[in-house]
Amino acid sequence: ASLLLLNGPNLNLLGVREPELYGASTLSDIVAQLSADASTLGHTLVHLQSNHEGVLIDRIHQSLTDGTDMILINPGAFTHTSIAIRDALAGVKTPFIELHLSNVHAREDFRQHSYLSSIAVGVIAGFGQTSYLLALTAASEYLTNKTP
Ligand code: DQA
Q: How does the annotation summarize its subunit structure (predicted)?
């Protein structure tokens, strides 16, 4: 299947940014590992990171016509602010998994609410780089069974 990995704002700084929260791996480490894991499972993984809400929205819209079967998204802080990203995901109806490196539920109050969770297939948070692998595994199962 064709999987789209989206990473939102500040995730380009992984490895440098608050490593006690987000780990020591860089985004390119994570994406390289995940692409390898995806191909082992027989999937292709395309990746986009952007610090710009509109760029993420445009890429979500492209999933309507580019054959994307499922989206894995770490929306960064847009999780907690972006009705527009929610509307884009709801509009294209491409099933998606929301994922986070940190356990957002163990953090500040303003991270407790996600605009995306209620329309996601599922949510994974708190496992660092492994959150990405768990999301890939879950996507692979979901696409086989068509149910979470
Ligand atoms: C994050 C959690 C968000 O609250 C935060 O704004 C991020 C990263 C995570 O992966 O843990 O940028 O999505």
A: Homododecamer.
- Is 132 among the catalytic positions? no
124, 97 Cβ separation under 8 angstroms = yes
What residues contact 61, with CB distance under 8 A and at least 6 apart? Answer: 88, 91, 92
Q: What ipTM was estimated for this complex?
A: 0.99
pTM > 0.95: yes or no: yes
- Any idea where the domains of the chain sit in the sequence? 33-53+71-77+91-98+138-148
How far from the centroid of its chain's Cα atoms is residue 116's Cα?
11
Ligand 1 shell residues, CB under 6 Å: 10, 74, 76-77, 79, 100-102, 104, 111
Buried b (16+ CB within 10 A) or exposed e, 71-82: bbbbbbebbbeb
